Amino acid sequence: MTQVTPQPPAAVPDINDNATTELTPQRPSPLKDAWRSFRRNRAALAGMVIIALIIVIACLANVVAPYSPVAQFRDSVLTPPFWQDGGSLRFVLGTDDLGRDILSRLIHGARLSMTIGVIVVSLSLGIGVLLGLLAGFLRGWIDTVIMRLMDIMLSIPSLLLAVVVVAVLGPGLFNAMLAIAVVYLPHYVRLTRSSVITEREREYVMASRLAGAGVFRLMFITILPNCLAPLIVQATLSFSNAVLDAAALGFLGLGAQPPTPEWGSMLADARQYVLQAWWVVTFPGLAVLITVLAFNIMGDGLRDALDPRLKR
Amino acid sequence: MLLAGTDYTFAVAETPMLSFVFRKLLMLIPTLLGITLVTFTLVHLIPGDPVAIMAGERGISAERHAEVMAELGLDRPMWEQYLSFLGNLAHGDLGHSLISSNPVLDEFMSLFPATLELGFCAMLLAVCLGIPLGVIAGIKRGSIIDHTVMGTSLTGYSMPIFWWGLLLIIFFSGILGWTPVSGRLSSSYWIDTPTGFMLIDTLLSGEPGAFVDALQHLILPTVVLATIPLAVIARMTRSSILEVLGEDYIRTARAKGLSPWRIIAIHALRNAMIPVTTVIGLQIGLLFSGAILTETIFSWPGIGKWLIDAVGRRDYPSLQGGILLIALIVMMVNLIVDLLYGLINPRIRNSR
């Protein structure tokens, strides 16, 4: 017992590092394990393929899209899709009220939606994990203040809170993303805090503490990696929610502003033609649905693979 | 002896419950105060001059502008405005709308029944359909029924409901012509609204056809608003049933030779309902978000649409009061769910 204490703290991580490099070849890594279990879930794999496809389309939007998303063909306003009377292969999914090609707008919209998802998730994940770590690790008044604030945010309906935040910042795509990130914050904070509270009482944390690890090392290197599984699942699921909520804000006229080809604002523009031109309304929403569905299916699969305790 | 015994357990079971409720209510106070501070700050950060917006396109002279600002108390420092807001709040006064100059509480109360009616019908639909579907999917695990229910509910869960509403309008109002596009009642009916609930008021009015008309107006918004809760409840019920069916007491019940129906209905369902109740409670909070979109699509004259309009018009007091009241309702609902939890699950009630 007494021999452990004088050991220089710096030596402990070294020993650990050696141990892991030696052991990896013999023991399947948890990541490989999760992948094996994920691969067996065919629906989740299909979701992943669709997401990969959307990402490829989003990256190559300029190459794939037949026209510019804002180019207006005034001679063919509200052209129906090609399989309907009056439609042609020139505009595969038809045109909107300003004669813009819907397919091209959808493809460029995919790029926006992916960006929205990535930015919202990184913002709320980054800030949420930090706040959750602080609250769960330090406890005391910091914990009380953070968690009370999160309780307050949770008791205001999410879309309403987002609407008010957008109203404060001014309508626009970037502000809508910020607003959605703010709204998702409490979920990440709560999730991180609850795992941190269970983890910090474990022996390995105590061991690391005894070895002289500082607060930051304990928080970010010792504890955080062990809280990641539920956070990854939450991140995939909130990616899809972010796409959905950004579209909702766009639909309310508070997100992306025209002529940005964001799916929700496309729907808002098309609303007045709902009874005359079904395609203007149908396709943008379908794009949202497919994207969100793919992410939710994959998220479900990830949850089962990464965290069997959460299996539902 | 027996009587004393029962009395004793009664006291033990009831007192902690009461103190539990009391403690929960006390804990609401700091959160509510926090909400007033957060909404007050947010709402006053919204850029734009409410007086200029009230004046509209005709504009307003600088003198009159200053006068109105003073009248509304908008020229005082923020903290003073906040304190007077709190003071009025203590008297049940949420201020007056800047647009209609009616008391905010009155406006809220006059519109709330519309949202409540819509929300209640949506929740009823979601629960009445979601629980049986979830139970069937759970019992017939792995069957076609299970896959269909789960696939449909995942789709419903991923649904952009504002689009879903538009699709339903295209199909049922546009193509079939069965349902009206917007509002709560056709303008050809003129009835008194003593309760504010259109279904009840039309019945009371005795006007022939009015009830059917109100029902036709209600049906699409209800379906749209119910979609996500329905999907969530069905999924939760299924997984909860699956979990419960694996328990030892179900095996015991089977071994005793009880009929499968009895096992499901009496032994499994009651325990499976515990997590489902929590989820239903959480959905009620989320319902307001859905109501904002649903009411916008169907021009439903409720709280959601009113709040969105208030944002557009910079109607500070309405927005502030509305958010506060909604947060209060959400918190009360969560409290009630907590208590219901105890009713359904005696283990929790007695352990507190």
Summarize the structure.
Chain A has helices at 11-23, 30-39, 42-59, 61-64, 102-138, 140-155, 158-169, 173-199, 203-210, 215-223, 228-251, 263-270, 278-306. Chain A is mostly helical and 312 residues long.
Structure description:
The complex is a heterodimer of chains A (312) and B (352). Chain A has 312 residues and is mainly α. Chain A has a single domain, classed as MetI-like fold (Orthogonal Bundle). Helix content of chain A is 69%, strand content 0%. Chain A is built from 13 helices and no strands. The longest helix of chain A is centred in the middle third of the chain and has 37 residues. The radius of gyration of chain A is 24 Å and the shape is elongated. The N terminus of chain A is likely disordered. Chain B has a domain of 209 residues: Orthogonal Bundle (MetI-like fold). Chain B is built from 14 helices and no strands.
Task: Name the descriptors.
heterodimer, A: 312 residues, MetI-like fold, 13 helices, 0% strand, elongated, B: mainly alpha, 14 helices
Q: Please describe the biggest sheet of chain A, giving its number of strands, its sense, and whether it closes into a barrel.
A: none
Query: Radius of gyration of chain A in whole Å, from Cα?
Result: 24 Å
- Find the CATH topology of chain A: MetI-like fold
Q: Let me know the number of strands of chain A.
A: 0
Mean pLDDT of chain A, nearest integer? 83
Q: What is the CATH topology assignment of the domain at 104-312 in chain B?
A: MetI-like fold
Task: State Rg of chain B.
Answer: 25 Å
| Overall number of strands of chain B | 0
Span of the ends, CA to CA of chain A: 44 Å
Secondary structure tally, helices of chain B:
14
Produce the secondary structure layout.
The complex is a heterodimer of chains A (312) and B (352).
Chain A: H1 11-23, H2 30-39, H3 42-59, H4 61-64, H5 102-138, H6 140-155, H7 158-169, H8 173-199, H9 203-210, H10 215-223, H11 228-251, H12 263-270, H13 278-306
Helix pairs in contact in A: 2-13, 3-5, 3-13, 5-6, 5-8, 5-11, 6-8, 7-8, 8-11, 11-12, 11-13, 12-13
Chain B: H1 2-45, H2 50-55, H3 62-72, H4 78-90, H5 104-139, H6 144-157, H7 161-175, H8 198-205, H9 210-245, H10 248-255, H11 260-297, H12 303-313, H13 316-344, H14 346-351
Helix pairs in contact in B: 1-13, 5-6, 5-9, 5-11, 5-13, 6-9, 7-9, 7-11, 8-9, 9-11, 10-11, 11-12, 11-13, 12-13
